[in-house]
Amino acid sequence: SANCRTFVAVKPDGVQRKMVGEIVRRFERRGFKLVALKLVQASEDLLKEHYWDLRSKPFYRELVSFMSSGPVVAMVWEGLDVVKTARKMLGETNPADSLPGSIRGDYCVEVGRNVIHGSDSVESAQKEIHLWFHPNELQSWENSSSRWIYN
Ligand code: IDP
Ligand code: MG
User: Fold this and answer.
1) Structure confidence by residue, pLDDT tens digits, 31-41
2) pLDDT tens digits for 66-117?
3) Which CATH number belongs to the domain containing residue 77 in this structure?
4) Measured from the CB, is residue 112 less than 6 Å from ligand 1?
5) Which residues are annotated as a binding site for ATP?
6) Which entry of 50, 117, 130, 134 is annotated as an active-site residue?
7) Does 130 qualify as catalytic in the annotation?
8) How remote is the CA of residue 144 from the centroid of ligand 2, in Å?
9) Which of 6, 7, 37 is nearest to 20 (CA)?
């Protein structure tokens, strides 16, 4: 539904490479609604929980360490099927498999520096939004262009 929400984060490499504006621009222009946004230094504890499903992977420790190496821009975006569409906008996990036109396909080359995170399902989006944001950080506002985006 149009009330679908996803969690997106510009990773420390994306922040360092000045990609925050470009990424926000793409989500805004697609027609999604910004519900929350903050620049945060994530703790290792938060990141361990965020990537809990990957805890047995050989790259888990390095991933948690890299993600806590600098600030990330955490966001919540809302709109029709936004979880699925955001994953398409991101591209594949490995930038080498990501098509040009996607964020990873346009701006990066290595899986360990793939500049952006996006929730992979509605269930994980709900978990991640809850993990990264307090309820009072999620803004409720009327998008004045919604009738030009939805019919
Ligand atoms: P996703 O970010 O596309 O959802 P996941 O499989 O959830 O991909 O992995 C989370 C993150 O872990 C990836 O974005 C990437 O930064 C890192 N990662 C995934 N696979 C590898 C790997 O094989 N080597 C190193 N890092 C990886
Ligand atoms: Mg994932």
Assistant:
1) 999 999 999 99
2) 999 999 999 999 999 999 999 999 999 999 999 999 999 999 999 999 999 9
3) 3.30.70.141
4) yes
5) 11, 59, 87, 93, 104, 114
6) 117
7) no
8) 32
9) 37
Domain with 23 in it = 5-137
Residues 74, 69, 54, 90: is their CA dihedral positive or negative?
positive
Q: What are phi and psi of 3, to 5 degrees?
A: -90, 5
First to last CA, the chain: 13
pTM, entire model: 0.98
What residues does 40 pair with on adjacent strands?
A: 72
Continuous H helices in 4-140: 12-16, 20-30, 44-50, 60-67, 82-90, 103-107, 122-132
For the cut 90, the answer to whether the pLDDT of residue 1 exceeds it is no
pLDDT number for residue 2:
80
74 part of a folded domain: yes
Would you say how long the chain is, in residues? 151
Q: Is the CB of 137 under 6 A from ligand 1?
A: no
